[in-house]
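seq:
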Amino acid sequence: MKYPYQTNPIPSGQRKALNEKVLYLIDHGGFDSAGITPADVYNAYTGDGGLHDLRRDDYENYHEYSKAKKEIENGQFFTPPPICNLVVSCLKPSASDLIADLTCGMGNFFNFLPAESNAYGCEIDHKAHKVAHYLYPEANIELGDIRTYEPGIRFDYVIGNPPFNLKWYLEDGSEMLSQIYYCEKAAGLLKPFGIMAIIVPHSFLSDTFTDSRLIQMMESRYSFLGQVSLPENSFSAVGAVHFPTKLQFWQRRSGLEGWVSSPYTTKTGFSLAAGFPIQSEANRIYKTFLEKARADLETHKSYVLLELAKSQDTSAEFQYKVKKLLYHIKIHPKLQSRYTKCYEYLYRFCTEKKPEEMSYEKWCKVKITEKKVISYLRKTLKKQNQPPEKDVIALVKQNYHFVYKGYSAKIRRQMTYDMRCPTPVYQAVLDNNPEHFPGYERLLRQKRKDYENQNQQFADMEEDPGIARWLSDFVLWDAENDEAIHLNDTQRHDINLVLQKRNTLLQWEQGSGKTLAGIAVGQFRMQRQALRNTWVVSSAISIRNNWDVVLKNYGISYVFVEKLKDLEQIRSGDFVIITLNKISQYQKQISKWMKQHRQKIQLVLDESDEISNSSSMRTKAVLACFRRCRMKLLTTGTSTRNNISEFAPQLELLYNNSVNMISWCSKLYCYKGKDSHLESWRNPNYRQPIPAYKKGYSLFSASHLPDKITVFGVAQRTQDIFNSEVLSELLGKTVITRTFEEVCGKDIKRLHQLPVWFPPEEKEVYEKAMDEFVVMRNHYFNLTGNSRKDSMMKLIQQIVLLLRISAAPDTVKEYGGDTPVKIMAAVELAAGWKNEIVAIGVRHKAVLDSYAEAIREYLPDRPLFIVTGSTTTFAKRRALRQTLRDSGNGILLCTQQSLSSSVNFEFVNKIIIPELHYNNSGMSQFYFRFIRYTSTEYKDVYFITYAGSIESNLMQMILVKEKLNLFMKGQDTNLDEIYERFDVDYDLLSLLMCREEDDKGRLRIRWGQQTIA
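struct:
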């Protein structure tokens, strides 16, 4: 036994005071100063039984008195230690047996068990649970109701003294007496052949006539082993002076063939007299009732498990590994106490079934598998080298929290609630009280320093003199042009600020030298800040046509990762260039490489707007590989194209959802209902880091721009930016923005709008696409066969067709006229520039073919060069530079996306864009191929659009999106200023088309003031 017990009962008048003193000392400590030991607690605490202070005379009848007494006592009469000793001695459990008391009280039975760690208990009274937890810290004791107790394992023995004659209501609305429910619950928790020993009143199942239904229920679940009468004064110490009780033994039935159960009998084997000798009587009971039953339990343990394992169709290799691991756990002195739980985990694997209410997908995630069993056993075996417990409390850092950890059961019991509550690391950094976290002061001071440095607004920063000297000496030799490349003053200033922080987004407009900045930052980090490598990640066209060319041209050591073997070629000081597609393909191997080299790299993500789609594979791969790397520089001409939410993945890559990425917006917004009314609510993540992935992207969108801009309806809602001051502060510390003019010191870009009008034959086919789209649809789109999907796609397909007609009406077979007006306008512009090289950028191959045909017909003497992504390789696009320059007046006809980055034609001054992109960012990627840092002449960009067509909507959407993009660049402008910048001088709003519903709920399109189906 763990604690010796006293045979002299405590006077009833002193019980309540002793109980209260015990509970006070457990709550507040001080046992040592009071000279009280756990053994004293064991003998002093006697529970609420008999302490109701009620008088029979105060109640009309005994029934009312008994009911009130039960409500106070809740059946809490702790089993006296001699009876507990007798029960355990009768059963003779081994150290590996699992034993439960389903209403354990203060755990009196646990005092006599061979292995405390294998004891399980449930107690509804918080006071008794508190005492039990104090006395038996290694036992598995839960505070709760037996009716909701689910330990998740099966037991060899269930022992107890259940509350008697309490009416318990069950989930299905029925009611059951407490002692019967105890037996039912025990049957569900016992293993086959498991034994239940319970102490019950003599009246329990004493009449075969009145109790026949209950006896049948018991016999359906158990085999009756026998019963003995206990002395009438057994519970006198807790107020039940003359209360006849008996001890019953039942064995859980098994479906094993040939095994015969014994029926119940009301006869008592024998009676125990007061002061009976415990050990001799226990041996007599064991020999009379339990010897064969216990032998059956031990014999069939392995048999039952083996049969269950076979029924699970486990592999022979699995069975061999389990047998081997269990053997090593069982024989090791340090692990013997864990053997039972390991065995039980295996038992759970063999017996578990999918709950009816659980989905199959969730079940596949939570169910125990062979792999989980082997892993569980191996982890247990590794604990043989675990150091012994120490009575120490220490502050530790677990993942992203600080928490106090107790290294022994005794210390864990003494820990207060405040000590158990974790403190997030970000909160500790914000609070800036490192002395409150002993042992981590240096870490928190460094994190706070980094936070304050990163939190500086770029507008408030000054140049670092040491970095300035290094940048002044920075020079690259351009072998192709045989000249030295230096940074200008503006570039040096911005790069100086970049190098003072760990993470920055450099938003220089196209042609301003972002590649040069990336090289300078990478070389400084590797030379001065001890980083191992600089990884450059970008799109395939940027890596192959730009980085692979310029690094070789500048004589910089680099590795181009095109296959896994290239990772082995990387040496310290190398630049590493890789495409976004390869990041997705080699995500696992690159992540491993990063960990092996302790994330000591400088990431340069060129064209960072390539990861603006939060759900794309490339975005997820980049975040997985590089979110933890030491320093990061993102470069792009525009961080957003369509809406502010596209900035969220780039922000997450920079700050990794850390203290630098706190959600400071107290309110969130969304549009709801058909009338799209604005609603707001409190931000549940206020003053917390923005969460990762989708949850964080949704939060970012709801914080600043809860609605996307679409082609239809753009005139009805102003695209206001919510919480703009918070977003401005975030951008101010993260993004350095420069226009081409600011970096280069010259404004040579001129934008022109050239609206043209539909002639009758073109207007006819355009209106036909609106009125008779159902007829035209089958000629241009493949239907899925699913009427619902096809109906949903109808409006989108109609918009696509209208845009195609607006770009080149002659690309649809319903058109019967001559060369369209827009194409002739482009040809006439090119014809007027006889000695100029002209570039024309469209978006679709069919449109490109139409323009090519017209140019060959009307300008046969002009050299025509056609470039598309599918027909012109990267190498051919680079070679075209010199050929086009030598032509003198050639026409470069291409798709905009084929020249979106890296291949530059800085000698071209006339650019025509007759087919609009969905945002200016996409178009500027194209026309800035001709506007470069080295350009000296004016560049004229002409947008040709059909007035009164859907292109009016598209242009308005481009301008509204540009307002958002300019805000992301630190320029809060209105649409009038943007109209002026884009040379929009016609009444655009009167030409807009809007979507609306007719009286039958069908979608219709309104064009200006005219309604068209």
